[in-house]
Fold:
Amino acid sequence: MDYTTEATTFKSPPVTAPERPNYLNAGYTLRSWLLTLDHKRIAILYLISVSIFFALGSLFAMMVRLELLTPSGDLLQPDTYNRMFTMHGIIMVFFFLIPAIPAVLGNFLLPIMIGAKDLAFPKLNLASWYVYNLGGAFTLWALIHGGVDTGWTFYTPFSTTYSNTHVIAVALGVFINGFSTIFTGLNFIVTVHRMRAPGMTWFRLPLFIWSMYATSLIIVLGTPVIAITLLLVAAERLLHLGIFDPKLGGDPVLFQHLFWFYSHPAVYIMILPAMGVISELVAAFSRKRIFGYRIVAFASIAIAVLGFLVWGHHMFVSGQSIYAATVFSVLSMLVAIPSAVKVFNWTATLYEGSVSYETPMLYALGFIGLFTIGGLTGVMVATLGFDVHVHDTYFIVAHFHYVMVGGTIMAYLGGLHYWWPKMTGRLYNSFLSRISAMLVFVGFNLTFFPQFILGYLGMPRRYWAYPPEFQVLNVLSSAGASVLGLGFILPLCYFGYSLFKGRRSIDNPWGAVGLEWDTTSPPPTFNFDVIPVVTHGPYEYNPEQVHRVTHPEEAAVV
Amino acid sequence: MSSVAADPHAVHAHAQHHPSLAHQFDNLDQQRESSTLGMWIFLVTEIMFFGGLFTAYVIYRSQFSAAFQAASHHLNVIMGGANTAVLILSSLTMAMAIWAAQVNRRKLIVVFLILTMLLGATFLGVKYFEYKEKFTHHLVPGPNFEFDGPDPQHAQIFFSLYFIMTGLHALHMIIGIGVLTWLAVLSWKGRFNSEYHNPLECAGLYWHFVDIVWIFLFPLLYLLGAHAH
Structure:
């Protein structure tokens, strides 16, 4: 394991020929970044913004976990606590989980993976980053002026009539942010349709592209609905238009229908890109063609389609018709089929593969386990009778964190570790990165598994205080959150170090296949010196000839 | 995974003949197909956006149909009908602007674009007088709402929907007029001709879409109670 100490044994990079032109050394001015049309630079801009919001959302989570250390509400005022979990949810869902993988990894990789020079609409892509930050600015303004306390779901009539917090500013922030998501999704769809390299047929697309495409479909069809819904909430507060106002005969349940029509598919906006990343990682570190490529590709589309038919399972106790609830219950269980197809196919890919446990693979394997738990508990809560029991308890909180954190964040970090040498041209400390992967996995389970038990025992979500018998499990959960936090801080350190002092990577440090590994690391501004012609599928690994250059000694440029 | 292909610089050099070709595209055909597809996808998002409103409309109309019919009578069918005609005419002039580009008539493009904008402005002007009438008759939802028919509360929901649906439609018209202004300047400068006029086509798709929204809004809001009398 001596290579793990590369940071200390290696003093300065060797003097070599002048650096090849790449997207990073194409310009060093602030202007060259802020006005760039290069999808790779925009991905880096997104990486910075998204990380800032992630840190902010984590701070709120920390406050929530600190408050819940003790049964009595002693650290925060109840109103403050309401704002804490609301801001945690809003920032994490709309400003981190939804844009994270598409806008950072997708932006960087999608054109390269299909052999294009850039996305179809580079200006729109840059605009999406500015719009994202504008939406973020609205939200931050509200935050500084006292935040919002409606929960991330903005349920009416509390949000429209009774809340005394900055609902309008946050709703507009999320509304504006929606445009940035739509711009990205629209750009991806057109790019996949029109910009593929010669020979890059649909069934030669990497599965990451398939999942980005499915995600984009959901974005384009779903996001406008939350946009109009939040606009109606803002209009009702500001202009007294009464669409959801029960005093006028308006129906708050209509709000819930419109809200979840987007917000349930939004879960698939978060998890589908993660599944795409995992398909890439599992194939690369098993040195095997992915098992059942077409089925995995179609499963992404199936999840996107089914995802639009299940929103009513959020409203089993909201007074919707019992017949509707039954149908939604059955449809929700159907989503488990394509999801399970993916899990089985990843597992089958591992079988008799030449598996290596590099950091990205640790995240990928962690993902498969955690997503399976998140998915199976999803089937449980889709069951009508059981859901009535656990509705609005910590069981639900644990379930969706297993999907969103155990799924999306694990995959995001795994992808970031996998493509980091491609994005920066540098290597990171592989020992520390494995430690961080372990910390995230252990910390995550310690945080959220006790919450399943808490919820099953009946502890409601969003409460500020709780009976003393729940304390042990809550302390475990808070302790896990600290471990998880450490697991998130560690990458910040070694990635930061790698960015400036890390050793230079060769073009393909993992010996992986795929167009992105054919070009240089970091890639040139137009991605390829010569536009590739694709002659075969995406996972042409040959286990017989294992060409594995994973140790930094071998992967570093000498 | 790949083998060597055509030299991109050669492709680039060839393509650079046309000043309107963006760097990421190989040729004008690819550029045209991409932007048209992008515009259609954008219109899909618009359909979903208005779709949320139409859903709310359908649900409340079926629940409160009597109140909706009564409230509908307070809208000015003459003005709404005239506006429908104005918008259909503006779609014609928009299509004529694209035709003018296809036959390389630079000045005619500008003339038809200005006509389209004028018709759009006429629509908004009529809308202004309609809104003003609602304000004077206290038909604007809120504390000052007064309605002498049955079910004034449910009528208030009708007028909430009326204002938000026609208001968002009018906002789309204003954005459309802004886009057409910009395109008229570019047309005057001679940017568009039979070979390259894709921005005009995309703006046309948008303009026709906004018209079609109105074609749905007009009967749903104005003609709702007509058959009852």
Notes: Chain A touches chain B through 63 residues (CB under 8 Å). Residues 1-12, 546-553 of chain A have pLDDT under 50 and may be disordered.
